[in-house]
Amino acid sequence: MKRSILGLMYLIHGMRNAGIDVDSRLVSIGIKADALDPSSIIHPSLEWDIQKVIGQGVQPETGLFIGQHYSLAGYGPLLMLLVTCSNVGDAIQNGVHYQGLTYLYGVLGLEKGDHQVALTYKPVDLETEMGLLRAQCEISGTYKFLDDIYKMMGLTAPSVRIELPFQQPQDLSVLKQYHDYYGSDLHFNCEKAAFWINEDVMQLPIPSADPITHRVYEAKCIAEIERLNAEEQKIAPLIQRVNDYLELQQGIIPSMAEVAQALNVPERTLRHQLQQLNTSYKQIREQLIKHKALRLIEYKEYSIEVIAELLGYSEPAAFNHAFKRWFGQSPRQYGK
Fold first, then answer.
1. CA 102/CA 156 separation, integer angstroms
2. Distance between CA 193 and CA 123 in Å, rounded?
3. Domain boundary at 227, 253, 273, which?
4. Which of 173, 202, 217, 243 fits as disulfide partner to 81, beta carbons 3.0 to 4.6 Å?
5. Taking the chain, what is the end-to-end CA distance rounded to the nearest angstrom?
6. CA-based Rg of the chain, rounded to a whole angstrom?
7. Which residues constitute the domain of residue 294?
8. Rounded Cα distance, 11 and 65, in Å
9. What is the pLDDT of residues 28-58, one digit of tens each?
């Protein structure tokens, strides 16, 4: 299933705040961070390829700081679903059920102990440096999410025992940073991450509970999951990956050389493989622009001049000419 690009955007934001020159790394593969389309979606494999470029050489422990810059704002319907639940337990269960709408690669779960319940997080990769960095970011971000959502629901955050699937830092100053963030009840070298709370907390009523609004946002969450699943079109994976990469940005269409570099494929090999699939970079690029053009015109929020700019045209006249060649009428005629 594809994912919202907001997870990647939050990672970029956090890396910037950590003093990492992430923008020059993105430019090396044809991406300008400020041109990323926040409404776009991305396949996890492509997102992983981009993360490997921007995360190269970054110490995994930096993820503790990066994850603190993840935000509630991008969670949309899922956030509203959680804050309108009847109690904390229902909210946690819904978060696990609809985790496909989060920005996590790892897997969320629920675990019960003696008079305690844990929200768990199992990383998908703890063997590589980038996998460790990503897990650090996501666990730190999940902890911040839990704290922020308690505040949003008007509740006091409960005492939490925290287990982390990382080795305890040998550097005492780094260890102090972990304790400053997670608290004193912190345990390393565990099988997975876990946030343990007293089971009585699960029954705490949520002041913002609203069953009618809850049903509305549950329907929105279900529709969004279906949309993300539907985007897994049955086309050749290589064509899908090229299309997904071109979909990411507004106003800038990366060159074939930049796409090849981002996908870690020699440009000549990419050209040949696309030919074998009876297509080309130029055809995929044009098809993408056509779909984006129709979507933006039907949205009826932008002028033709703005749409032309968003699609990478330097002049509206060039966009008008291309649109008429594609669809037999001008953008203004189509929009009426």
1. 23
2. 8
3. 227
4. 217
5. 35
6. 22
7. 237-335
8. 11
9. 888 888 888 877 778 888 888 888 889 989 9
Residue 42 forms part of a structural domain:
no
3-class DSSP assignment, residue 112:
strand
pTM for the whole thing? 0.77
Report d(CA 130, CA 320) in Å as an integer.
44
Q: Residue 231: what pLDDT?
A: 61
The runs of H, that is alpha helices, within 2-104 are: 6-17, 22-27, 44-54, 63-66, 76-83, 88-97
Domain count along the chain: 2
Mutual orientation of helices 281-299 and 267-276 as an angle, nearest 10°? 80
Q: Specify the higher pLDDT residue, 213 or 73.
A: 213
Task: Return d(Cα 165, Cα 174) in angstroms, integer.
Answer: 16
pLDDT digits (tens, 9 = 90+) for 98-150: 998 988 889 999 999 889 999 999 999 999 999 999 999 999 999 999 999 99
CB 45 within 8 A of CB 288: no
Pairing of strands 116-122, 193-198: antiparallel
What is the rounded distance in angstroms from the CA atom of residue 37 to the CA atom of residue 46? 15
Give the alpha-carbon dihedral of 144, 149, 150, 152, to 10 degrees.
Answer: 130
Which spans in 111-203 are helix H?
129-152, 172-182
Any idea what the CATH number is for the domain that residue 291 is in?
A: 1.10.10.60
- Phi, psi of 249, deg, nearest 5: -115, 155
- 250-260, pLDDT tens digit by residue? 777 888 998 99
Instruction: Burial-class residue 173 by CB neighbours within 10 Å (0-12, 13-18, 19+).
Output: exposed
Which residue type occupies 198? N
Residues 53 and 30 sit within 8 Å (Cβ to Cβ)? no
Say how far apart CA 206 and CA 200 lie, in whole Å: 14
Domain boundary among 227, 260, 293: 227
The predicted pLDDT at position 122 comes to 96
In a domain, 198, yes or no: yes
**Domain identity same for 318 and 285:** yes
| Beta partners for residue 116, in sequence order | 198
Token pair of 322 as six digits: 């291309």
